[in-house]
């Protein structure tokens, strides 16, 4: 399973109107701004080491990033934690093509995967870790995306979600479309995850981590 590469979202610039609420397209990151996703400040605001020390994964095997964008965080996690394979998933054809052209040749263990809104074309129980960074607030139905993450995780696999705190700040999406970590935790539990924990130490972002049960009733 060797292949290509992808990244994640951050200093996002949003195309939004505020008249009668937001359409789904207005919540999505504009692919024309993809270079914003490669801002090194993102690794300061969301340090991979901070996340990793809370995951307690002993043998990194297969990682899956959903909403990987330019594979910025996929690259960081590959370099630091050395999984055998990292699938960088995104629903944007622009992002996937950018990753193929700019990342795959350097990091053949990062494999870009084109997804749909709530479906990831990977096998059941393939991943040791699934993660989403600054994606949750964009999702049309986050519960369906979490159920899909549950499907592709191995029993005892981990998931983490990082997203913007719901407070006013210069960066990131409008406060009105941000989500609360308590809601993300509730959605994870409803999707079947256990031992779900919220971390709020980061200045701009929250972190929610969950685990897939070893005995899953074939789910």
Give a description of the structure.
The protein has 219 residues and is of the alpha/beta class. It has one domain (24-211): Rossmann fold (3-Layer(aba) Sandwich), CATH 3.40.50.150. The protein is 27% helix and 22% strand. The chain contains 7 helices and 7 strands; from the N terminus they run αααβαβαββαβαββ. The chain has helices at residues 24-27, 41-45, 48-55, 72-81, 93-102, 142-152, 181-191; strands at 62-66, 85-90, 110-114, 127-133, 153-164, 194-199, 205-211. It has a 7-stranded mixed sheet with strand order 3-2-1-4-5-7-6, with helices on both faces. α4 links the parallel β1 (62-66) and β2. It starts with 23 loop residues before the first helix and ends in an 8-residue tail after the last strand.
What is the molecular shape? globular
The tally of structural domains comes to 1
Rg, alpha carbons = 16 Å
H/E series: HHHEHEHEEHEHEE
Structure class: alpha/beta
Helix content: 25-40%
CATH architecture: 3-Layer(aba) Sandwich
Major β-sheet annotation? 7 strands, mixed
> Mean pLDDT score, rounded?
86
Number of helices: 7
Which homologous superfamily in CATH is the superfamily?
A: Vaccinia Virus protein VP39
- Tally of DSSP β-strands: 7
Fraction in beta strands: 15-25%
User: In CATH's first tier, which class applies?
Assistant: Alpha Beta
Distance between the termini: 24 Å
């Amino acid at each position: 399973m060797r292949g290509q590469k992808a990244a994640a979202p951050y200093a996002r610039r949003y195309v939004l109107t505020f008249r009668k609420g937001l359409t789904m397209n207005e919540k999505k990151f504009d692919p024309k701004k993809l270079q914003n996703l490669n801002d090194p400040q993102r690794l300061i605001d969301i340090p991979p080491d901070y996340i990793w020390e809370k995951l307690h994964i002993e043998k990194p095997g297969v990682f899956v990033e959903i909403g990987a964008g330019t594979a910025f965080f996929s690259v960081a996690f590959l370099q630091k934690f050395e999984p055998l394979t990292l699938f960088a998933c995104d629903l944007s054809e622009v992002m996937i093509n950018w990753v193929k052209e700019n990342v795959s040749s350097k990091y053949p263990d990062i494999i870009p995967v084109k997804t749909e809104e709530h479906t990831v074309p990977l096998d059941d129980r393939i991943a040791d870790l699934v993660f989403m960074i600054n994606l949750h607030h964009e999702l049309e139905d986050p519960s369906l995306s979490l159920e899909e993450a549950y499907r592709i995780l191995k029993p005892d696999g981990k998931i983490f979600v990082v997203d913007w705190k719901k407070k006013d700040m210069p960066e990131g999406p409008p406060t009105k479309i941000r989500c609360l970590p308590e809601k993300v935790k509730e959605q994870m539990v409803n999707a079947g995850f256990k031992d779900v924990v919220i971390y709020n130490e980061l200045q701009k972002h929250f972190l929610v981590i969950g685990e897939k049960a070893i005995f899953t009733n074939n789910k």
